[in-house]
Design a protein that fits this description.
Layout (H helix, E strand, L loop, with lengths): L9 H6 L10 E6 L1 H46 L4 H26 L4 H15 L9 E6 L9 E6 L7 E19 L5 E18 L5 E20 L3 E3 L8 E5 L3 E10 L1 H4 L17 H16 L2 E3 L2
Antiparallel strand pairs: 1-2, 2-4, 3-4, 4-5, 5-6, 6-9, 7-10, 8-9
Helix pairs in contact: 2-3, 2-4, 4-6
Keywords: Membrane, Transmembrane, Transmembrane helix
Length: about 300
């Protein structure tokens, strides 16, 4: 399969026919796999370029501030100058400008595009040959923070037998990271959704010295749900296949097969589990992620056999 989408240079990105608007909180579009890969990488480059500019602006603000403070001290040697008031005003002004620069960057460029660039580029590259000629993949993505009030599903009291324990609460969040669909060359339809389920546990304890401490721990899993609609005029049901790990339904024209893969770093790679890190999906390699999704497709196809 062609890998040209994974080796594009920055100059090629700049000339690629893709959206240039600030991508504040996600996207929704239809593109060919190659254009998606270009789009993902361009988003990453765009944010990296803006981040470099942000750092330069912040550095400039502090250099000017330090220079102004030094200059005020030099003036004070020659004539009276309220250096203390000027120092306080300069620091406050620098902090305000620093906050504004960071706020502007956060408003226009959000995190998350690295994930799509690495993970979905690999997946789209693997399925590209199985798509219809010039077939487009519909994809919606949400790169907002998971820990937001709109994503809160429920909260529960948490208790512990630990003597230092004072109180605790569990907050359960869920968001759809992405969902999409595409048509395969044999007439099958792929519909998928990828979610994040996050538990945030906030515990208050009393240390041996009597001080109160608050700790926050996280546990996250990432269910990927794949639904395949397989045309009955091209395939027949394989009755000998094990269906314990999937759901099967049908209508007049299609077999509808639903499979799920839950990525859980705590269960699969406990040595990598970090309870104080809210997101763990990046600990799974992009190749591993893509191959697991391809396996879901293969499991679905295992339920049917081509008509003679």
């Amino acid at each position: 399969m062609s890998q040209q989408g994974s080796v594009l240079t920055q100059e090629q990105f700049q000339g690629a026919p893709i959206e240039r608007a600030h991508l504040h909180r996600g996207f929704s579009s239809k593109k060919t796999p190659l254009k998606w890969i270009r789009f993902f990488r361009a988003c990453v480059l765009q944010r990296e370029s803006a981040n470099t500019k942000k750092k330069k602006e912040i550095k400039k603000v502090w250099l000017i501030t330090v220079g102004a403070i030094i200059l005020s001290h030099l003036i004070d040697y020659v004539a009276y100058f309220p250096t203390t008031l000027f120092f306080i005003a300069a620091i406050i002004t620098a902090i305000i400008l620093n906050v504004r620069i960071k706020k502007k960057f956060k408003k226009n460029y959000t995190e998350g595009f690295d994930f799509f660039s690495d993970y979905f580029s690999a997946f789209f590259t693997l399925i590209e040959e199985d798509l219809q000629p010039q077939s487009r993949i519909t994809l919606e993505a949400n790169v907002k923070d998971t820990i937001e009030k709109s994503n809160l599903q429920k909260e529960e009291e948490y208790t512990s037998e630990n003597r230092s324990f004072l109180s605790g609460k569990d907050f359960y969040y869920e968001k759809i990271i992405s969902k999409g669909s595409c048509f395969l060359s044999d007439g099958c339809t792929l519909n998928f959704s990828f979610s994040e389920r996050l538990r945030s546990r906030i515990v208050k304890k009393r240390s041996a010295s009597g001080k109160r401490k608050t700790k926050q721990k996280y546990k996250s899993i990432y269910p990927f749900i794949l639904k395949m609609k397989i045309p009955k005029d091209k395939y027949v049901l394989n009755t000998a296949n094990d269906r314990s790990t999937l759901e099967l339904a049908e209508d007049a024209e299609f077999y509808i097969i639903k499979t799920t893969r839950k990525f859980d770093i705590k269960n699969e790679h406990p040595e990598k589990y970090e309870p104080y890190r809210s997101s763990s999906i990046s600990m799974f390699s992009s190749d591993y992620f893509a191959l697991e999704l391809i396996n879901l497709i293969n499991v679905s196809y295992g339920c049917v056999t081509p008509r003679a």
